Amino acid sequence: MRILFLTPRFPYPPFRGDKLRAFNFIKRLSRDHEVALASFIEPEETELAKDMESYCHSVTTVPLNKTRSYLNCMSDVFKKTPFQVSYFRSPAMEKAVDGLIEEFKPDLIHAHLFRMAPYALRHKNIPKVIDLCDSIALNYERFLKYRRDALRPLYMIEKKRVEDYEALVTKEFDASLVISPLDKEYIKQNPKAGKIKIVPNGVDVDYFTPDGEDKQDSRLVFMGTIGYFPNYDGVLFFLRKIFPSILQQEPEAQFYIVGNKPPRDIEKMNDGKKIFVTGYVDDVRPYVRSSEVFVCPIRAATGLNNKILEAMAMGVPVVATPQACEGIEMDKEEDIAIAEGPDDFAGQVVKLLNDGKLRSKLSSNGRRLVEQKYTWDINVDKLEQIYDKAMHKK
Predict the structure, then answer these.
(1) Shared domain check, 385 and 351
(2) Contact 257, 228 (CB under 8 A)
(3) What CATH number does the domain containing 112 carry?
(4) According to the model, what pLDDT value does residue 332 have?
(5) Sign of the CA dihedral 38, 373, 289, 208?
(6) Together in a domain, 112 and 181
(7) What is the 3-class SS of 296-312, one letter each residue?
(8) Which pLDDT does position 394 carry in this prediction?
(9) Are residue 288 and residue 365 in the same domain, yes or no?
(10) How far is CA 46 from CA 29, 62, 100, 283, 362, in A?
């Protein structure tokens, strides 16, 4: 099969959720299919294009002109189009996709995120699949409970636009995907929505393995793009409401915040003694493997948190809020520690730090869960079956 894969962000390096998903889909699809990639790209990413060439028949990139993007949003301020779609509107991308349709002659178009939907919908006679990943409208609904900055009114407007747009595109594509049942149920509440399939994220279980690092007593870790609001909010929630209680009970505890783009207020909390803020690192595995507990205190969660699955794959026991693991099919007593509220969260962490048998149980059960349900190979098999059905609809 010849697949034209459209992405709004260049999928390499795969250090955040949507890029991670796109990269691993392309990597595994390329084993049995020809994949042509068309993607927007930031100026600093230009040299990375060659890193995708080993997986793709061709790699076509279009620079994202941010000035033009903001002008697009301003011109559409009184329309119903989501600002995210306006932001990524580009005649250059239209021309690139049209050229690839003519030259590559794809059997199927895969649009990654609804921002790329317009470029696929221009071509009526080709089977089309859209991967919404998370429900962005649900994401907005949840984080608006905690966001109180000047941008809040804008996000409230965008939430309504996205809610309708997400539902509408599920009827215009031959197949629509989301990561979790939670996202599917939210979109399906809209009477305008069509059929939706679930294809979870996965983990490279050969890369994220349990071995390789000695555990450091009382070390806790969180990883993720810290500048992303749900992660930022979760880290602040942990530092302000949970970690002080842990330190009262476990004075030797240390908390490592590992991830890209930490905001200044998070960076300032790095004291080099109890709190460590690493910023971007080339390899998160040593930080996670050397920790006794992985914490995921996210409150504004949607979709499926790959950070939890990756920690489990590395054999590190996880304490998480209920919201952070809603999208994961697991036994919430045998595979993970679920914490309701700050006091319970602190208590669950302290319990794990002092109970080696419990840590060992969650470690082995978490790894087994990922191997059985959440490898990329398992989920790309599901994706290929959806492609086949979409092809036969035409």
Answers:
(1) no
(2) no
(3) 3.40.50.2000
(4) 78
(5) negative
(6) yes
(7) ECCCCCCCCCHHHHHHH
(8) 58
(9) yes
(10) 23, 10, 20, 22, 42
Walk along the chain (394 residues) in steps of 10 and give the mean pLDDT of each run. Answer: 97 85 96 97 85 94 94 93 96 97 97 98 95 92 82 88 95 95 93 94 93 85 92 95 97 96 94 95 94 95 86 96 89 90 97 96 96 94 96 77
**212 assigned to some structural domain:** no
Inter-residue contact 122 to 389 (CB < 8 Å)? no
Q: Which residues are bridge partners to 221 per DSSP?
A: 256, 294
Task: Note the pLDDT of residue 265.
Answer: 94
Same domain, 359 and 379: no
**Strand order through the sheet with 337-338:** 275-279, 254-258, 219-223, 293-296, 318-320, 337-338
The pLDDT value given to residue 148:
79
Same domain for 300 and 240, yes or no, is yes
Distance from CA of residue 215 to its chain's centroid? 27
pTM over 0.85: yes
Asked whether residue 214 is assigned to any structural domain, the reply reads no
DSSP class of residue 375 equals: B
Domain that holds residue 386: 2-202+375-393
Is 211 a domain residue?
Answer: no
Q: How many CB atoms lie within 10 A of CB 194?
A: 16
Tell me whether residue 260 is in a domain: yes
For position 202, what pLDDT does the model report? 92
